[in-house]
């Protein structure tokens, strides 16, 4: 949490990127192609200029424009070997759009009277397996529970302890991801432990720290290795709104860093002057953040200040940039009112903290709403990006309230709403939107199913697999 502060200064309109590595230098170390040779012959340059001028005069669209594959209002062009796809209207019609079935194919979990494996407490991740089974990472119990395709429990692994395959505390479990049928749980200190069905520990991955320093955090796997994220922004010297950045690196299975993928922005943070401890920060309310997703050899990164996603290959090199127009808006009074109803109205904690939160909320009014809040890659290689709404702005507060940290009592009726996912096809075109059921959080997407966590009216968690219908 942010330190105690006196006054919150007005946010700066500038968002300086704090980074020591320019984007042009953040390139793969091993897979970068050599630069193309350049000719110094002036005659050749003159010929090329004459050809270009002639093409413009004659109106030849094949040479005058770099548009190669228009499809509807989509524009596909090439820039230095990187395909750029810009979309407006969706490809799907009402008759062809994808949707989730009304009833789940599978539901896991129960309250009382069942086996311990079937009672969940704060699910960190849910992952579909190739045989139709499911792995559930239960954070508060520090367990990984495996189920077969029928929903029967196969076994479990993990637990609290200091041995191989155990966790010192649930607080050390940061996130989970799957490398095909191996489920990894990332922990503090740049480590990730791997497990397979029916409940066996297989290995521990330790990431080599980057040369610039910083604590690495394992994010996901791809191209036979692991993607590691390390913060390397310089600490600001003045209060205000600053944009942090992180370094993404690719590591082999032994943890050695083999490539620098990129330096990318990670979050907007409000830095304020503390009473005793100098500058401290809190994430900007309704601020954009970095999303990273991978599946097999496809890696996707995107910072949500606009709807733009970089689709990369297994080495991290950008192969396609996807942009979708017409999805931007600003934080309005309705967003502020909903946030206040969820967090401020039931607040029972420190009133000074509440006042500072009100100031942060007022500063957010009129800022751009993040273009998305989460990104997933499905089994077919399509990219899904979930719309940001006020529930994402309160997620941090909801999390710490559940741990008893803030003393607020949130109103769960706000969860009774569907969430929207924009789907980008394997060719980079914007296909359309998929609505997910109320109270359902997506964790994994297959060819014909969507897997996630559903909460009932009492906040009890269940794992559900819904059919994905593609007319």
Q: How would you characterize the overall build of this protein?
A:
The structure is a single chain. The chain is mainly beta and 471 residues long. The protein has a domain at 66-96 and 285-436. The protein is built from six helices and 28 strands. The strands form six sheets. It has a six-stranded mixed β-sheet, with no helix packed on it. Strands 3, 4, 26, 27 and 28 form a five-stranded antiparallel β-sheet that branches. Strand 19 and strand 20 (308-312) form a beta hairpin. The longest helix has 17 residues, at 42-58. The protein is globular and about 50 Å long. It starts with 41 loop residues before the first helix and ends with a strand. Residues 1-71 and 399-413 have low confidence and may be disordered.
| Beta-strand percentage range | 35-45%
Number of helices: 6
Q: Distance between the terminal alpha carbons, to the nearest Å?
A: 47 Å
Radius of gyration: 24 Å
Q: How many beta-strand runs?
A: 28
The portion of residues assigned to helices is 10-25%
Low-confidence segments: 1-71, 399-413
Q: What do the pLDDT scores average to?
A: 79
Write down the overall geometry. Answer: globular
Q: Which strand order do you get reading across the main beta sheet? A: 1-2-21-20-19-18
Q: What is the SS-derived class?
A: mainly beta
What oligomerization state is this entry in?
single chain
Q: Specify the biggest β-sheet.
A: 6 strands, mixed
């Amino acid at each position: 949490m942010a330190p105690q502060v006196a006054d919150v200064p007005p946010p700066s309109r500038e968002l300086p990127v704090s980074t020591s590595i320019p984007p042009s230098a953040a390139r793969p170390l091993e897979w970068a192609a050599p630069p193309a040779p350049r000719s110094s012959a002036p005659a050749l340059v003159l010929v090329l200029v004459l050809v270009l001028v002639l093409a413009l005069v004659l109106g030849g669209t094949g040479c005058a424009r770099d548009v190669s594959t228009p499809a509807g209002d989509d524009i596909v062009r090439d820039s230095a070997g990187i395909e750029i796809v810009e979309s407006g209207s969706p490809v799907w019609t009402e008759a062809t759009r994808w949707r989730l079935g009304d009833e789940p194919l599978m539901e896991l979990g129960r309250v009382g009277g069942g086996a311990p494996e079937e009672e969940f407490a704060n699910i960190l991740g849910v992952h579909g397996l190739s045989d139709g089974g499911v792995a559930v990472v239960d954070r508060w119990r520090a367990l990984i529970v495996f189920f077969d395709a029928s929903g029967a429990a196969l076994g479990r692994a993990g637990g609290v302890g200091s041995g191989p395959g155990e966790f010192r505390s649930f607080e050390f479990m940061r996130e989970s991801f799957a490398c095909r049928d191996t489920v990894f749980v990332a922990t503090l200190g740049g480590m990730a432990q791997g497990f397979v069905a029916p409940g066996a520990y297989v290995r521990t991955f330790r990431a080599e720290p980057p040369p610039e320093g910083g604590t690495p955090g394992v994010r996901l796997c791809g191209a036979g290795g692991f993607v590691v994220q390390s913060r390397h922004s310089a600490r600001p010297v003045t209060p205000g709104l600053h944009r942090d950045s992180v370094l993404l690196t690719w590591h082999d299975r032994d943890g050695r860093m083999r490539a620098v993928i990129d330096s990318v922005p990670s979050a907007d943070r409000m830095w304020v002057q503390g009473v005793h401890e100098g500058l401290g920060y809190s994430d900007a309310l309704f601020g954009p953040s970095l999303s990273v997703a991978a599946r097999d050899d496809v890696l996707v990164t995107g910072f949500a200040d606009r709807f733009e996603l970089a689709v990369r290959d297994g080495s991290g090199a950008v192969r396609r940039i996807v942009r979708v127009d017409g999805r931007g808006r600003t934080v309005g009074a309705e967003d502020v009112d909903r946030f206040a109803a969820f967090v401020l109205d039931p607040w029972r904690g420190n009133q000074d903290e509440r006042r500072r939160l009100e100031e942060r909320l007022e500063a957010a009014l009129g800022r751009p709403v993040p273009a998305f809040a989460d990104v997933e890659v499905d089994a077919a290689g399509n990219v899904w990006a979930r719309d940001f709404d006020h529930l994402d702005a309160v997620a941090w507060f909801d999390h710490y309230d559940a741990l008893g940290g803030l003393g607020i009592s949130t109103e769960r009726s706000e969860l009774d709403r569907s969430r929207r996912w924009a789907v980008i096809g394997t060719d980079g075109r914007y296909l359309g939107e998929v609505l997910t059921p109320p109270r359902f959080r997506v964790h994994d997407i297959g060819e014909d199913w969507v897997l996630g966590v559903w909460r009932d009216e009492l906040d009890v968690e269940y794992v559900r697999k819904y059919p994905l219908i593609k007319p």
